[in-house]
Amino acid sequence: MGKVAIVTYSMYGHINAMAEEEKKGLEEAGCEVTIFRVPETLPEEVLAKMHAPPKPDYPVVTAEQLVDFDGIMFGIPTRFGMACAQMKSFLDSTGGLWIKQALSGKPAAIFVSTSTQGGGQESTALTWVTQLTHHGMIFCPLGYGSPGTQYNMDAVQGGSPWGAGTFAGPDGSRMPSDNEKKTAATQGKLFGGVVQKLSS
Ligand SMILES: Cc1cc2nc3c(=O)[nH]c(=O)nc-3n(C[C@H](O)[C@H](O)[C@H](O)COP(=O)(O)O)c2cc1C
């Protein structure tokens, strides 16, 4: 059974909601899934000023734990069209793995959250591929693997061939739509299939 880590950061819960859908799809593909969160880098007083709710009950990931998994998904909220500093800070802590190329050959996938349309749905994922590349990981894009939802033009929705995505809205009040959740679950199932093949 392929073991998958979903490594997340989420300030307001959008990435968490998408991670739960990804997990459903991964489990459908027969994978064993653990959702982690990366260490917070902001002080409590700043989080309070940003109206961040309490963190979910996901374990905080350490770099060394990644080695135990057959595949890794990264759930990333956008900051200025790229990954948030918390995710980058965590990846910066993986230098010890990088020098040994301990993650080389592991499949990886990405899903994102942005406030606005065009706010970084694609650029957040594509700039994260640099992290995967230096580790020798295999980027598994969604492509158009969820045509039923990705070709839909009747509603506003996040996501791209780079991976599933959601729009949080300018004030963060919009939670993932049914289409976005379906795309995330399908991405999980497709990625889970790849992990199963590579780990068997
Ligand atoms: C400093 C900062 C920069 C941001 N930059 C962008 C951006 O470039 N584009 C965008 O659409 N949203 C941007 N956002 C909004 C976040 O992406 C949004 O809050 C996040 O996707 C919500 O997901 P979460 O609840 O899982 O954290 C930014 C937020 C902050 C605090």
UniProtKB/TrEMBL annotation:
PROSITE patterns: FLAVODOXIN_LIKE. One of its GO terms (cellular component) is membrane. One of its GO terms (molecular function) is FMN binding. InterPro entries: Flavodoxin/NO_synth, Flavoprotein-like_sf, Flavoprotein_WrbA-like, FMN_Rdtase-like_dom. Gene3D superfamilies: 3.40.50.360. Residues 166-186 are annotated as: Disordered. It holds the Pfam family FMN_red. Belongs to the WrbA family. This is Flavoprotein YCP4. The lineage of its organism: Eukaryota, Ichthyosporea, Ichthyophonida, Sphaeroforma.
